[in-house]
UniProtKB/TrEMBL annotation:
GO terms for biological process: alcohol biosynthetic process; isoprenoid biosynthetic process; mycotoxin biosynthetic process. InterPro entries: Isoprenoid_synthase_dom_sf, Polyprenyl_synt, Polyprenyl_synt_CS. It comes from Rhypophila decipiens. Residues 420-449 are annotated as: Disordered. This is Geranylgeranyl diphosphate synthase. It holds the Pfam family polyprenyl_synt. GO terms for molecular function: metal ion binding; prenyltransferase activity. Keywords: Magnesium, Metal-binding, Transferase. The keyword Glycoprotein does not apply.
Length: 754
């Protein structure tokens, strides 16, 4: 039995609304009913730090635009305890950033340990000269008011965490995964997390079961550590660069060095380990819940950790702390700038804008502007609305960058040449760099002069729009189709992964361009890429991805692969040009012309993956799957057009009848135009859409009603049903030719059926 607890304070979140990257199968996401309780106290902790300790710049901690950390990692937290835990957790994030700066970390650990030991022993933390001590005192006081015994247990656990872990070995260059994992199991905050979960859920584990509880939870804590390392790697890497280190204290770096592999290969290894911990811990929860010799509270603790795993993963995937493309929602930004509301609902007047001016002579930077004023140009994107700098470098490490002397910067750009003399090297222009399997932070030139490469800065920026789109929920139909086709073709695993990557890159790049060209403001329920990064950056990033895909095709080997790639890429562009031409010039195509456009635009990607798989098959049986893939592409696009008009899920993710906003001639609209050729107000509505840039809600409702009245929606549904039968027949013919039944492809067709 995996679920024993009664859930009173949280609800399961619809899995179609968030992404897990396949790393948390079988564990749902739960979210607290009152996440704002954490939100306010999290920001209060930041305000208190600015008042009592010092400026933070635009620090990024536990909040996210959709999910706040505690609300989804301890979703069954008692409502009256969620606020103080949000406050304490924000201090933990601040503490984590401080201890990453190794020359000051131990002193802060010692201070934290002494404070919570005192709180556990005396029931109070005496205020010292340290501003941090005032923050710690506030946490202790609020927790002790709620439940003295459980608060005492938690503070003892936190003191132990500060003593043993919390970055005390961040100056260690770990060489093997085994020694790193041993350290990470302590550093991830096993004792800190134990205190958070038990206090939040009002759990009192019997003293004679504490060791057992830790033993049972070990796999969960390994998962938390690996997940954190996977998604925080970029932040930690850039922090290490800022501090001039030649290593990163992260499992990704350790795996790269130990196995001499690339960053992406190391991340793949990490992902597989995460998946295994999920399988293992779910079994531990089932076994624990079925035991009769374990207390109810220990069972609640272990089951509660299930949701810590899913919550930590979902938060890590799109939080501003780890991702440059992620920002905060408007309410959070307002509170950050102007202060959280007091008991009368008025801003406290101690947001980052006030605090910054009070503590620093530097202007507040917000997206390249000062004091929240948007720059004159924003790459064609929307105004910044006060959005602040999105850098992810640890704020405490970043402060050290300002102390660099001009001579030191100049020194680091001069590196010894092969003959031992000094040659000038301009950062970011080293075209002679050898390609290694690992991304090094510092140069390895003779003479030992350290040089931080800036190549990664440009890559980070150009990848950001693509990474944002890739983070959005996706059904992954094309990747599933590749796996399904490989039942017949048996392409070697490494080449199959390259084909998947090529398909994924091209698909996402085309979505970035399509949304911009079509004027679509939503993608999978989230803002389209160009509405966040601007038109110029989106186009540039998409073009870069097309070159990335070409590089992957080259790895497959052979001129045939390049030819396939260029053929189908040209088809994609031709199909999109037809779509845009008809829309922009109010030309209604025939059904046959529409299907030809779809065959180019949507079928192109399906043909690309099919032709590449065929080219690299290890099977002697060569069967042409192009007719099947062409019809599958037609079905897929027409189904999408139909769902855009009738599906509530599509309306939520892309907006109500978004295709009518874009003026696209989908099959239902083409049928309607053919059925009502002399209807003047239909054409006038389309003309007004072109003039205004979008259709208003009343016009869309009218057009939808006309489609229903004229039978256009019914016609499209019948067309889809007939096409589905045709695709199924193609599949049966292919199964006969290959001599192998393909249940994977049958499953895809069943999933796509209307």
């Amino acid at each position: 039995m995996e679920h024993m607890m009664e859930y009173r304070y949280s609800s399961v979140v619809d899995p179609s609304t968030y992404e897990t990257h396949g790393l948390c199968d079988g564990i749902p996401l739960r979210c607290h009913h009152n996440p704002e309780l954490e939100e306010i106290e999290t920001l209060r902790c930041q305000e208190d730090w600015r008042k009592w300790v010092g400026p933070l710049g635009f620090y990024k901690g536990g909040l996210g635009p959709r999910w706040n950390f505690m609300a989804i990692t301890v979703p069954e937290c008692l409502p009256e305890r969620l606020g103080v835990l949000g406050y304490a957790n924000e201090l933990a994030f601040l503490h984590d950033d401080i201890t990453d700066v190794v020359h000051v970390g131990d002193a802060h650990n010692d201070d934290l340990k002494a404070a919570f030991e005192q709180g556990a022993l005396t029931g109070n933390i005496e205020q010292a000269a340290s501003g941090k001590r005032a923050i710690q005192q506030h946490i202790a006081r609020e927790m002790l008011k709620l439940h003295k015994e459980q608060a005492t247990v938690t503070m003892k656990a936190w003191a132990k965490f500060a003593e043993l872990g919390s970055g005390r070995h961040h100056d260690t260059h770990f060489k093997t995964e085994a020694e790193y994992i041993k350290y990470r199991m302590i550093d991830i905050g096993t004792m800190f997390w134990y205190g958070m979960v038990t206090f939040g859920m009002a759990i009192s584990i019997p003293e004679d079961e504490v060791d057992l509880a830790h033993e049972l939870a070990n796999v969960a804590y390994l998962n938390l550590g690996l997940t954190n390392d996977l998604y925080s790697y970029q932040k930690e890497y850039e922090t290490a660069m800022a501090m001039g280190q030649d290593y990163v204290v992260n499992v990704i770096w350790v795996l790269m060095e130990e196995h001499n592999i690339t960053e992406e290969q190391a991340k793949d290894m990490c992902r597989e380990k995460i998946k295994q911990t999920i399988v293992d811990f779910r079994q531990i929860v089932r076994d624990t819940n079925s035991r009769t010799d374990v207390s109810v509270d220990t069972k609640r603790y272990i089951e509660g950790l299930l949701y810590s795993l899913s919550g930590n993963l979902v938060w890590s995937i799109d939080c501003p702390r780890y991702h440059t493309w992620s920002s905060y929602n408007e309410q959070q930004l307002d509170w950050m700038k102007n202060g959280i509301p007091d008991e009368n609902g008025k801003p406290s007047g101690y947001g980052y804008a006030d605090a910054h001016h009070e503590n620093s002579q530097e202007p507040v930077q917000t997206n390249g502007a000062c004091d929240g004023v948007a720059p004159a140009t924003n790459n064609g994107g929307p105004p910044s609305n006060g959005m602040v700098d999105t850098g992810i470098v640890n704020v405490f490490a970043a402060k050290g960058i300002k102390d660099l002397k001009a001579m030191r910067i100049l020194d680091e750009t001069i590196t010894p040449t092969a003959n031992g003399t000094n040659g000038t090297h301009i950062k970011g222009t080293d075209t002679s760099r050898t390609h290694t399997n690992k991304r090094h932070i510092n140069g390895t030139h003779t003479g030992g002069a350290k040089r931080v490469k800036t190549d990664d800065l440009g890559i980070k920026i150009i990848q950001a729009p693509y990474d944002y789109l890739g983070s959005l929920p996706s059904k992954g139909i094309r990747e599933k189709a590749i796996d399904a086709l490989n039942v017949w073709f048996q392409v070697p695993a490494e080449k199959l992964e390259s084909i998947k990557l090529v398909t994924q890159i091209l698909h996402n790049a085309s979505l970035m361009l399509d949304d911009l060209e079509d004027g679509s403001h939503l993608r999978r329920g989230q803002p389209s890429t160009h509405t966040i990064f601007g038109a110029g950056q989106t186009v540039n990033a998409a073009n870069y991805q097309i070159l990335r895909a070409l590089e992957e095709v080259q790895k497959l080997g052979g001129a045939e692969s390049i030819g396939i790639y260029t053929d189908e890429l040209k088809s994609l562009y031709v199909g999109q040009s037809l779509d845009l031409h008809w829309t922009n010039n109010l030309i209604c195509p025939s059904v046959e012309q529409y299907l030809q456009m779809v065959e180019n635009k949507t079928g192109g990607l399906f043909r690309l993956l099919g032709r590449l798989i065929t080219a690299h098959s290890t099977k002697s049986v060569k069967v042409d799957v192009i007719r099947f893939l062409n019809d599958l592409g037609r079905y897929f696009q027409t189904r999408d057009d139909y769902q855009n008009l009738v599906s509530p899920v599509y309306a939520e993710q892309k907006g109500f009848c978004e295709d009518l906003d874009e003026g696209k001639y989908s099959l239902p609209l083409i049928h309607l135009m053919l059925m009502t050729p002399s209807e003047p107000f239909l054409r006038n509505m389309l003309t007004q859409r072109r003039f205004n840039g979008r259709s208003n809600a009343a016009h869309k409702q009218t057009m939808l009603a006309l489609m229903e009245k004229s039978g256009s929606l019914a016609f499209t549904a019948q067309f889809l049903a007939a096409l589905h039968v045709k695709v199924e027949k193609h599949l049966e013919e292919l199964e006969t030719q290959f001599g192998v039944r393909n249940d994977e492809l049958r499953g895809i067709l069943k999933m796509l059926a209307i």
